[in-house]
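User: Quick sanity check before I run a bigger batch. Here is a single chain. Can you write out its predicted 3D structure?
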Amino acid sequence: MSPASQTNGSPGGRKIVRQPPIGPTFQTERNATIPKVPARKRRKFDPHAFLATIGEGRKSVLFRRKQAIFAQGDAADAVFYIQTGKVKLTVVSKTGKEATIGIVGDGEFFGEGSLAGQTLRMNSASAMTDCAVLRIDKLAMMGALHREHEFSDLFVAYLLSRNIRYEEDLVDQLFNSSEKRLARILLLLAHFGKEGKPETVVPKISQEMLAEMIGTTRSRVSFFMNRFRELGFIHYNGGLQVHSSLLNIVLHD
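Assistant: Done. Predicted structure follows.
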């Protein structure tokens, strides 16, 4: 007799039929497998593609040589990324004296002070060469940094390298001679120590600008530049070409 028709000893010997369960049945065999729902793949983010394309809060802007990008005192509402070209950063004192505080090039950011609470620009930026610059609105930049770990890692690494550069500049000003400071600036402008061969420094960079950057006079810069050329450390060929041998000046005690 099947279990469905067994009696349960109730009065009158009535048969109680057990109904099959309502709803779907499940396999209970030991070797049964339950199909797995594939996990959703996280969208892959490429920080370099982000910095090479336009999108929400990002637009590419072209600047001609010597054209102003922003001025000291302007609203600090965006960060800029240089796709191609070089940009000069300057500051003007209350008495009207201007000083060059940095030159940034391909693959570098500037204007990042807007992310640290600056409401007004503390310096000015102008194109030293024809430039292609990606302008990233402050809110778009902060959103990307919060969402995308790859992008925030890249940006933090850049900020750390910039901070190290500032510390090295300070040590250079405090302890090194103007000749060594000039040699170091030329090597930095030539991207010495980075991947690839040293590149030609910005064409037509003035000796006045170099003097501002190292804190000396134009006449001293002219004297050292002539000396570097006589020693074969630099030469002019459609622009200032810097050789790695100039490192000897920096390392010499």
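DSSP finds seven helices and ten strands in the chain.

User: Great, the batch can go ahead then.
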